[in-house]
Specification:
alpha/beta
Length: 284
C-alpha cells in the first residue's frame, strides 16, 4: 500500500495546512508521496524536509514585512510576493531551508504548475529541492495578475491551482491507494466565476488557453470538490478540511491571523488522528 497526501493551495489559507502537517510531523507520521499546489507546495515542502513549525514561524514573523509581500513589490517587480526575498534571502539566510534532508527523504514530492500556453496542468517531481525544483515551486505559487509568469526550460508557467486545484486524481494515477486530502475550504464551499476576468484578459492577452482555463476554473474546482466528497462518503479517501471559511487575506499582514488559522489547522489535525485509524504504526 502506498500512502499519499494531497495539499490544496489558497495563499494564506495554507496556514491551516501547516497546522495539520506540524501535528503529523510531531507524531512521527510519514507518507510515501505528496503533491502540493501553490501554497500547498511552498508550505508543504517542509513535510519532506521534516522542518516542524518552519512555515508557520516565518509567515508569522515576516507577514507584515514589506520585503515579503507588498503592493510596492507588485508595482516594482510584477510580483506581490517578492521573489528575491521569498526564494533567496528567506530560505538561505533568515530561516534556513533544509534541502539536504529534503533530498535524502525518500518521500516523493510533486508540485503542480499551469502551462500558460496550453492552459493545462504540469506535474513536476522535486528531488533535490534546489535549482529548478525551487523554480517549479515558485511557478506553482505564482498567482495570476499579481505574479509574473515563471520561465523554465522554454516553458512558461503560473499557479497550479488554475488547472488542477486539488490533484487527487493525479495521485491515484501515480498508484497511491491510501490518500489523505487536505482542503482549505469547507466541504460545502462552491467557487464562483472569476471576478477579475477583464484584468485577466488584459494581462494574459497573449495566452488565450490560459484565459479559458481561468474563465472556467470554477467548474473544474467544483467538480474536484464533488469527486472528493463522493470518494470520502464511500470511504475511499480521507479528508481534513476546515469546518468554517477561514476568512484570511491572501496577503495577510496581521500575525494574529496567521496564528489563528494555524491553530485551527492544528486542532483539525489532532481531531483527525483521534477519530481515524490513520496512526503511526500503519504508515511505512
Amino acid at each position: 500500500m502506498k500512502t499519499g497526501i494531497v495539499m490544496e493551495g489558497g495563499a494564506m489559507r495554507g496556514m491551516f495546512t501547516c497546522g495539520v502537517l506540524d501535528v503529523f510531523m510531531e507524531k512521527g507520521i510519514i507518507f510515501d508521496g505528496a503533491v502540493g499546489v501553490s501554497a500547498g507546495a511552498t508550505f508543504g515542502i517542509n513535510l519532506k524536509s521534516k522542518q516542524i513549525g518552519r512555515a508557520y514561524r516565518y509567515n508569522k514573523k515576516y507577514c507584515s514585512d514589506k520585503r515579503y509581500h507588498s503592493m510596492e513589490s507588485l508595482l516594482r517587480t510584477g510580483n506581490i510576493f517578492n521573489v528575491k526575498f521569498c526564494y533567496s534571502e528567506l530560505p538561505y539566510k533568515l530561516d534556513l531551508w533544509d534541502y539536504e534532508t529534503f533530498e535524502k527523504n525518500p518521500m516523493e514530492f510533486y508540485c503542480v504548475a499551469t502551462d500558460i500556453r496550453t492552459g493545462g496542468p504540469v506535474y513536476h517531481r522535486c528531488d533535490s529541492g534546489m535549482g529548478k525544483d525551487m523554480e517549479w515551486i515558485r511557478a506553482s505559487a505564482s498567482m495570476p495578475i499579481v505574479s509574473r509568469p515563471v520561465e523554465i526550460d522554454g516553458g512558461v508557467y503560473l499557479d497550479g491551482g488554475a488547472a488542477d486545484s486539488i490533484p487527487l486524481k493525479f495521485m491515484e494515477d501515480q498508484g497511491y491507494d491510501k490518500i489523505l486530502v487536505i482542503e482549505t475550504q469547507p466541504a460545502d464551499y462552491i467557487k464562483g466565476k472569476q471576478q477579475y476576468m477583464p484584468l485577466v484578459k488584459m494581462t494574459l492577452r497573449k495566452y488565450p488557453n490560459m484565459i479559458n482555463t481561468l474563465e472556467n476554473r470554477h467548474i473544474m474546482y467544483n467538480e474536484e470538490k464533488r469527486y472528493i466528497r463522493e470518494k470520502e462518503k464511500r470511504g475511499e479517501v480521507l479528508v481534513i478540511r476546515p469546518k468554517e471559511p477561514l476568512a484570511i487575506k491572501a496577503a495577510e499582514t496581521d500575525p494574529s491571523e496567521i496564528e489563528r488559522v494555524y491553530r485551527i489547522g492544528r486542532e483539525a489535525g489532532e481531531e483527525f488522528l483521534k477519530e481515524s485509524n490513520w496512526v503511526t504504526d500503519q504508515i511505512k
